[in-house]
User: What shape does this take?
Amino acid sequence: MMRRATTGLLLGLLCAPGGLLAQASPESDRATFLAAHARSFPGVAVTNYVLGGFIGSASARQHYQDIMSFPPFLPEVERGRVLWETPFRNGQTYADCLPQGGRMIAGRYPYYEPAEDRIVTFEMALNGCRRTNGEPEYRHDDRATMGLLTAWARSLSDGMPLDVRVQGPGAQRHYENGRRLFFRRMGQMNFACATCHLHNAGAVMRMETLSPAVGQAVHFPIWRGAEQLYTQHMRFTRCMEQVRAEPFPMGSEAFNDLEYFHASLSNGLPLQANVYRR
Assistant: This one.
């Protein structure tokens, strides 16, 4: 009960007009989340937050490890490799288009592009390669193209620490837009992202432990039930549907800004694309 009351007070301070939510920097936001998570998951190292809901019990962690020892979704990742390596009609490839051949770069996304005053996600960078080389862009909601491509492309950065930077007034404005959306209650259930993943992180809902916000962004795409691929925007969409809200379009500025804020919370944690989630 004390943990609930304390976390509730924290959430109230974050959301109050003129309170921490209106004033905090990315660094202080992350510190606030980590303090709340430490109360929700006493004795759990921050590096273990990447386990998400599998933090809840030893048996859950063992189940996760068993699945990941030989993931049944590896054929899907292989299909993503084929998409990555197939040349464009002009003979160029994604590796020719992206810095460092596309290796160890995903941790720098999303980032703020001042010339266009927008947030650029990794998926946007992949579509930028397609556009530059005269190819049609992939839809953000298409698991068979963008989903599979990112499954392979993001795996090329596995182990890279997430390093999302918020520098300058334009970047700060988009970051704050994403932060407001994270705390905004919506839908018939009147839930926010923070309701589950800050205020109630560690609680059990529908037989599953609600995961902490810190550690979530390093794993996308995730494989729900080892059957369905979800990019980060697909997961945002599903969460909004579950609270009976009308989702924003995938690839929209709203979701891009939300991803910018959400990813910054996990700065310093290593990327590992394609993990199992129930």
